Amino acid sequence: MAQTVSMNVLREDTGEGAPTLQHWANLGILRAEPDTDGQGRGRHRAFNAEPYFGERKWALLASALHRYRIPANDIHRVIEALRRDVGSLESPRYDDSSPDAEFKFKDRERDRERRFLLLPFGAALMPRRDSQDESLLFLSIDHSNAGSPHVFMHLTSGSWLKSHIIHKEKEPDTGLRRVELPYLDGLTEFLRDHPETFCLNLTRIFAPLRR
After folding, report:
1. What is the DSSP string of 84-99?
2. What is the pLDDT of residue 64?
3. What are the domain boundaries of the chain?
4. The pTM is what?
5. Rounded to whole angstroms, how far apart are CA atoms 116 and 91?
6. What does the pLDDT look like over 73-86, one tens digit per residue?
7. Parallel, antiparallel, or unpaired for β 178-180 and 46-48?
8. pLDDT digit string, tens, across residues 194-207
9. Fewer Cβ in 10 A, N or C end of the chain?
10. What is the Cβ-side half-sphere exposure of residue 125, based on CA atoms within 13 angstroms?
11. Quick check: 177 and 168 in contact, CB under 8 A?
12. Separation CA 25–CA 163 (nearest Å)
């Protein structure tokens, strides 16, 4: 894949029309390369496709949110939050700050990249071979403050949800089976606090990038 791609590639990825994609680029949802972003001057916008598919992934996410009929301004807020928090190798969450972390590279950049690829967002972009896991993103937009709506996110791995379900066959007093869901507590609390939540399967949304 070339370092940059045209609007036509984003159209093929998303199935969206050129006017919609141009509108998203005008709003900053998609970021064209600066020297191609002169509107109304006969120039064709070019979009970075690196690293890890660049703007192509954000176009696919914007399209998925668009199908939920989420307004463009809110799509912009969501994409900006994702760029900052999980979609960039520079995100603090990819720092290796724990002494017993499984990532032991001396090269900090390599370490950061490996964490990105193993945690849910990066794993959705570049699943490991033969992996059946899928990354799930739960999103909620709080409009209680009309001047500055907030985006809340809960990003997890489907396999983590399954692996943290602990079955206890019998309780000593009742003889009934009890099921504990310790990992789901955080997700349950998130859904309780944010009843208007959207769920996106990032692994499937990003599938066109891996064709």
Report:
1. HHTSSTTSGGG----T
2. 97
3. 1-70, 131-211
4. 0.82
5. 9
6. 999 999 999 999 99
7. unpaired
8. 888 999 999 999 99
9. C
10. 24
11. yes
12. 40
Residue 136 φ then ψ, to 5° = -115, 135
pLDDT of residue 50 exceeding 90, the answer is yes
Rounded CA separation 118/100 (Å):
16
Place of tokens 């990532």: 103
Give the separation between CA 176 and CA 174, rounded to whole angstroms: 5
Residue for token pair 């109304």: 40
Rg (C-alpha) for the chain, rounded Å, is 20
Q: Which two tokens stand for residue 26?
A: 């005008």
| One-letter identity of residue 162 | K
